[in-house]
Specification:
Layout: H1 7-10, E1 60-68, E2 73-80, E3 91-95, H2 104-111, E4 115-117, E5 124-126, E6 136-140, E7 150-151, H3 162-179, E8 188-193, H4 196-210, E9 220-226, H5 232-245, H6 251-260, H7 272-285, H8 308-313, H9 333-341, H10 344-349, H11 366-371, H12 380-388, E10 392-398, H13 406-414, E11 420-429, E12 432-440, E13 443-448, H14 455-458, H15 460-472
Parallel strand pairs: 3-6, 3-8, 8-9, 9-10, 10-13
Antiparallel strand pairs: 1-2, 2-6, 2-7, 4-5, 11-12, 12-13
Length: 480
């Protein structure tokens, strides 16, 4: 049985059926007309009529930036000004993982944006813990085929991978700054979660390398990552140990894996005992939500268009494990998002496809997930390079996530061999222990007690306080 790298087994948050391009010919994609996305002014991207939007005192923009004119490749973004003093606050780019999952469907409207999809009303509700209280927030759908991003050239969808994504995201940033020039000289950070554990360091490295040319300079100060995939070998080891330590699998299964699996090997999955042991871990996780092991799963009904067969397919074997449908305090959030973003009035308000309804928007693109062409087995060398360059790097873990559990991240960061500057200890928010903290030379690591994979869904107030400390470069509160 052939098994792909750690990140291509379960990254992202949702399963869906999606056609990356409806094609008639090689150069005709989702929309056959030629696009001039990115050439108009920022005022044309102002969002004014999104259904159900609460009244707010800041502006937000949505639209496209063309990153490749020849192929008609365009990335979709949604940008929220800081709620106060946007000209003084930093700019933060948010990337969700997958590969193939939507930063708009997750980060912007489930986690850290000012509007959260309201399941009861079918519109949006105000998020009092939005990160745009502290920064200007830019959510990017990357690569093409994710969310509303697209290419008019079919072959683009066949070569997607880490390097492709980093290059397009880098091109996007420069073209976006041309559209919003007032933000070019503000402090810039990148944040993300899940498979963005690879996206973010790779993009940060590219920015640092290209900054040698003054004309391309971007004032990158650091990055922030939640439950990130970091090093495949350590991530697999941590996933297995976490499952055993949290009573998901038996002592016997854990023993078989520890004795037969060498996750650092290039032929890990040629060992039948190892493969069967890992399949047993995934099979047991298939009974619950691996991304939030102590919360309920979504009870899917016929109105959602999803069924239990698709749930079961998520965990058939280690070679076919798919992104989740479920997650968060409300395990049906992903379903609400798919309903919301498939509405014609919502798409029109966000300047999608010039008012023509885009059908079958889904929160993650399963074809991208399975067709991913290149994934670095580890980004630890990039960490070392960027730490040496002086970037601020913070990593956090929700401690009830089974997919990229806290043990995976601790194993990965431990492999860096960084000197410890602040010992393991609790950090506090509103007089309660929010998690535990360890400070290294050049990196800060913290846990969130009782949070799953997408931490801000579970701990919105704590996440905002954490984000604020990160931007300020201040230590987390160590006393109640």
């Amino acid at each position: 049985m052939k098994v792909l790298g750690f990140g291509l087994l379960a990254w992202g948050f949702a399963l869906f059926v999606f056609e990356p391009a409806i094609v008639i010919g090689e150069t005709h994609g989702r929309w056959s007309h030629e696009t001039t996305c990115g050439s108009h002014s920022e005022s044309e991207d102002v969002v004014t009529e999104i259904p159900g939007q609460p009244s707010v005192g800041f502006r937000h923009y949505a639209g496209y930036v063309t990153v490749n004119e020849k192929n008609g490749r365009a990335l979709f973004y949604w940008f929220f000004e800081a709620s106060t003093r946007p000209d003084e606050k930093p700019l933060v780019l948010w990337l969700s993982g997958g590969p193939g999952c939507s930063s708009v469907g997750y980060g912007a409207t489930q986690e850290i944006g000012p509007f959260i999809i309201d399941s009861g009303e079918g519109g949006l509700k105000f998020n009092p813990y939005s990160w745009n209280r502290e920064a200007n927030m830019l959510f990017l759908e990357s690569p093409v085929g994710v969310g509303f991003s697209y290419s008019n050239t079919t072959s683009d969808y066949k070569i997607l991978g880490d390097e492709f994504t980093a290059n397009d995201s880098y091109t996007f940033l420069h073209k976006w700054f041309n559209k919003f020039p007032s933000y070019r000289n503000q402090n810039f950070y990148i944040a993300g979660e899940s498979y963005a554990g690879k996206y973010v360091p790779e993009l940060a490295e590219l920015i640092c390398d290209m900054n040698k040319d003054p004309s391309l300079y971007i004032d990158l100060k650091g990055f922030l990552l939640g439950n990130p995939e970091t090093s495949d070998a350590h991530d697999w080891e941590g996933m297995v140990d976490y499952a055993w330590s949290h009573a998901i699998v038996s002592d016997e299964t854990h023993k078989i894996i520890k004795e037969s699996c060498n996750f650092g090997s290039n032929d890990t999955w040629s060992n039948e005992k190892c493969t069967k042991g890992v399949d047993e871990v995934l099979s047991q996780y298939g009974q619950i939500d691996i991304y939030s092991i102590y919360t309920s799963v979504c009870i899917i009904n016929n109105s959602t268009g999803l069924d239990n067969n698709r749930m079961q397919a998520m965990f058939t074997s280690s070679s076919k494990m798919m992104p989740r449908i479920l997650g968060g305090y409300d395990p049906c959030l992903d379903n609400y998002a798919e309903v919301f973003y498939n509405r014609a009035d919502v798409q029109k308000a966000l300047h999608v496809s010039d008012g023509h309804l885009l059908k079958n928007w889904s929160i993650c693109n399963n074809e991208i997930f399975h067709g991913w062409k290149d994934s670095k087995p580890s980004v630890l060398d990039i960490y070392k390079k960027l730490i040496a360059a002086g970037l601020r790097i913070w990593v956090y873990s929700g401690d009830t996530d089974g997919r990229v559990p806290v043990l995976s991240t601790r194993y990965s960061l431990g492999a860096l061999g960084l000197p410890i500057t602040g010992s393991w200890r609790p950090w506090y928010h509103k007089k309660q222990v929010s998690g535990w903290l360890q400070e290294y030379k050049g990196l800060t690591f913290a846990t969130f007690r009782g949070a799953g994979h997408a931490v801000p869904i579970f701990k919105p107030s704590e996440s905002l306080a954490f984000f604020s400390s990160f931007l300020a470069g201040e230590s987390l509160p160590l006393q109640p």
